[in-house]
Amino acid sequence: MFDFLLFPEQATANAQKLDALMLFEIGILVFFTTLIFTLILVFCLRFRRGSQVDRSNAPTHSRILEVVWIAIPVILSAVMFIWSMQLFYELYDPPADAAEISVVGKQWMWYLQHPQGRSETNELHVPLGQAVKLNMTSSDVIHSFFIPAFRIKQDVLPGRYTSLWFQPTKTGTFDLFCAEYCGTNHSIMIGKVHVMEPADYERWLMEKGVGPSQAEEGERLFVEHHCAGCHRGSQTVHAPRLEGIYGKPVPIQNGREIRFVQADDRYIRDSILEPKTEVVAGYEPLMPSYKDQISEQDLLKIIAYIKSLSNQETPQ
Amino acid sequence: MSAPAIDADHHADYLTEHTVKSWLLTGDHKRIGIMFMISVTIFFFVGGAAATLMRLELMTPKGDVLASADAYNRLFTMHGVIMIFFFLIPAIPAVLGNFFLPIMIGARDMAFPKLNLMSWYVYMIGGILGIWILIFGGVDTGWTFYTPFSTMYSNTMVVTAALAVFITGFSSILTGMNMIVTVHTMRAPGMTWFRLPLFVWSHYATSVIQVLGTPVLAISVVLVALERIFRVGIFDPALGGDPVLFQHLFWFYSHPAVYIMVLPAFAVVSEIIPCFARRPIFGYRFIAFSSIAIAVFSFLVWGHHMFVSGQSMYAGAVFSVLSFLVAIPSGIKVFNWTATLYKGSIRFDTPMLYALGFIGLFTIGGLTGLMLASLAIDVHVHDTYFIVAHFHYIMVGGAVMAYMGGIHFWWPKMTGRMYPEFWGKLSALLVFVGFNVTFLPQFLLGWLGMPRRYFEYRPEFQVLNVMSTAGASILAVGYLLPLIYLLLSLRHPRTAGPNPWGATGLEWQIESPPTSHNFHGPVLVTCEPYMYSPEEAEREYAHEQLVHNA
Amino acid sequence: MSSLSTTLEETALGRDVAPRRTETLLSPHFDNVEQQSNASILGMWFFLSTEIMFFSGLIAAYTIYRALSPEAFRLGSQHMHVWLGFFNTLVLLTSSLTMALGVRESQLGRRDGVVWYLVATAVMGAAFLGVKAVEYSMEIEHHLFPGVNFQVPAEDAEALAEISATPEELQTNLGRFQMMFVLYFFITGVHAFHMIIGIVAVLIMAALMKRNWFSGNGTTQIEVLGLYWHFVDVVWVFLYPLLYLIDLSGGH
């Protein structure tokens, strides 16, 4: 019962630095609170009605005091700001060799995908001492990825990618919470972060066999859902080729006019789910819709596959 | 030039005429203040009931008291919406401000009595819509209505709630406009700006925020409603919109809104401290100007609610600097109030207990605000119970305590009756203790990582949650007692007298309760405010003791 | 002189024309008529200052977008109906004249004159709205109303394609072309909404004037109404050049 801590575990260097800043600020809070409480107490006792003390010439203003009690808080504020700004900046500055993990938040679970292929739900396994960068998006509402032991948090937004990075310094299991109210089961959109010794982590990655990468998985799905039938050199169907289109503008037929649309994740996803809304100029609206047939996770994999095709030249 | 109205019947006060019509069609700012007082009290207890249920649920880590997570989500939403829009925003300005601002400047009413009455009716319409929502299913978006949950995913009465907030906002705007024009045009001869009670300065600053900020809230909720009904796409990324835009719009009002809630509290404290320390206030001009500074700065800091929202790191830095700066004027006030106690002749009547409690709790709340302005710390504690504790320290430990202090201080003036001092002191103490037991543990809970708006939580957080609920039960008693003894005091005859506290200020120079037109003749102001003398107070007290012991 | 009551209880609405009261009624909470008048006028100015902020924000948004994509906005502006807008400007300015004359009539104590000028103001306001409706319907018909039916006209799309260095830039310019219309419809729409409120207020005041509702010729009330009307007019004086006259010469 009397297990309770005053500080959560410190499992990253960032956590230690943040705790130091927090202690400083708690110190300031305690100092000023004690100061005010003490002054009030002392004045109330000393100058309570009926006490025999000198009350003559009670001052009504003091320019000097005002300056002092403006200047000191300003200086302290500057210190707090600069210190915390430094830490904050570091949170936005991941090392170049950070391993990247994709995260999708959705009502009410976290889906995490390691680049080497393994994916997990509501659990995150990471190796000790390795910097990890999370690339996150939401498939519905705003969520927030929060690991108290690492002292990090970042809102996860639909239609956008946000990121977070950390480098664990301690093995163990730590809480993962959703920290932005997202509906009915917001309170149970929680999980665990497992920091493992690097050897254990490698073993864990291999557990399900040498898994395919996201792009390889995507290609499998591309064939499985018969996309390749039209989009990979069909004799009978005239469909746009996908090599090299990722990130480029695509001409879209719009009545008599033509407009250009960027072939990004959104475009590819919409083309799969609602192909008739943006038909490429010069092609017939023949593609069927895959709405409700392909999950968000699979869509991400297919997008990863199509992304991987952009290194090749577009054969004409 | 007409002479001011003089009441023929000197025994009639503003409460005398009893007909319902005379109340519902009144233009009298005092009656409107009383009507607001009754309304906000009802809403306070409804919001409090929601909080009670929430704290009962939170005694155990699993969800076992309420029917479902959805029920909990609706409760915390309604608690927030009711407490903020139907209690905290109107409470001090529309009750005490309406009642006393005209009298304090020597006027017979507000500049626009009909607009004043309309403000109450608009508030009631919004409030009734709020009750309607409560009965017929509630809203579960949180009082913050974040998109796209509120616009595309919630299955509750979001549009109705948006409408209720939209309507109630106009009440705020009308009150603000009325007060500003009143202060500019209706001060009695001799009432220069620097002779105004600080209560008036603070309410003036509050009114500026109300008039300038509330329209932005109105537009924000209108956009939510439009998005929900017409799928306009402004907040929907699939249609090219941006959900974070809502946060900018919402917080642009909602941050200044918290100053709408706390500036009037400062106003009350600035009146009580000098009276019960029997001393002129220390640093009058600094306190006056700091209110204006707060009103201005409050519009520049909204992004500190969005440090982890996806907004740029540089925007975060700018908002962080400004948030530190906005704390400085509040600090000035706290130091000046404390200095006012020096060489005073201090009495510890109930209003003073509330005011002193305010200073202590507001200091804690404000300093934790500095922690939140510190970017890296906020990253960790944002959306946790740390935030909940912070704002409850300011709103409850601050604003509600000041409201209670003000109600007690001015009760004899408004009603002509005194409240029982023993019960008053006991309640103040219960509130102070209960409040700290409820909310101090929540700072720790948040720091340890317990997120807010959680219906179920990790078992290791239970001890602190139980403590918090225990405190809440003490707090509840502390609030129920005044409801009872203040109502009971109305059974007594009106014997409080015009000035039971020996206070300065024009409101204490007229009858208790005041007559309908406040003053009997022309008003001329010739002296500075807060002309108390601690030495004279001591002499009087010594004399009293002599007489008493003789 | 009991009273808490105000003019609400003194003259019931719907009664026939009341006897004239040439002395301005002083509400009991004011010390003198001047204070009463000042309060009303300050109140209206205060409200107008918030409206100025509102429209300033919209105009600022328009200006920023125009600076970012001058060619797209220029091309969009070519579709504005300059002469209809000119007619509307004349109408609105004249309505401000009739409003000002109405204020003067009230100061001279000529109530019938006030009613006549207020009605003229309302009629002109209605004419403004009518022309605006015609403009809107033409623009909607040409697929220039933002939304699913919006289409960049072919000539404009070509012109934008010529000046766009990359396809991404063309995409942006096409979007900005539509943005011009978003701003146009929103700003003029909000302005029209304010006009509707103004017209209703003017007609109500005219009716009350006719029934001798106001004491003392209603000078303050009409003046306050005039302030609102002039404000709505001044906003249009900014909108017409910004939306219609800009880039009229057609050159780069």
Give a quick summary of the entry.
The complex is a heterotrimer of chains A (316), B (550) and C (252). By secondary structure, chain A is α+β, with helices and mostly antiparallel strands.
Sequence-ordered SSE layout with sheet pairings:
The complex is a heterotrimer of chains A (316), B (550) and C (252).
Chain A: H1 13-46, H2 63-91, E1 99-106, E2 109-113, E3 119-121, E4 123-127, E5 132-138, E6 143-147, E7 152-156, E8 162-166, E9 172-178, E10 191-196, H3 198-206, H4 214-224, H5 227-231, E11 249-254, E12 257-262, H6 265-273, H7 296-308
Parallel strand pairs in A: 1-5, 4-10
Antiparallel strand pairs in A: 1-2, 2-3, 5-8, 6-7, 6-9, 9-10, 11-12
Helix pairs in contact in A: 1-2, 4-7
Chain B: H1 20-24, H2 29-57, H3 69-88, H4 91-104, H5 113-135, H6 149-153, H7 158-185, H8 198-230, H9 243-277, H10 284-297, H11 313-340, H12 350-373, H13 375-381, H14 385-415, H15 421-448, H16 462-489, H17 534-549
Helix pairs in contact in B: 2-3, 2-4, 2-5, 2-16, 4-7, 4-8, 4-9, 4-14, 5-7, 7-8, 8-9, 8-10, 9-12, 9-14, 10-11, 11-12, 12-14, 12-15, 14-15, 15-16
Chain C: H1 7-10, H2 33-68, H3 70-77, H4 82-107, H5 111-141, H6 154-163, H7 167-210, H8 219-245
Main attributes?
heterotrimer; A: 316 residues; 22% strand; C: 252 residues; mainly alpha; 8 helices
Indicate the percent of residues in helices of chain B.
55-70%
The overall strand count of chain A is 12
Give the H and E element order of chain A: HHEEEEEEEEEEHHHEEHH
Question: First CA to last CA of chain A: what distance?
Answer: 71 Å
Rg of chain A, Å, rounded: 29 Å
Q: What fraction of residues of chain B sit in β-strands? A: under 5%
Portion in beta strands of chain A: 15-25%
Largest sheet of chain B: none
Low-confidence stretches of chain B: 1-10
Shape of chain A: elongated
Gyration radius of chain B (Cα, Å) is: 23 Å
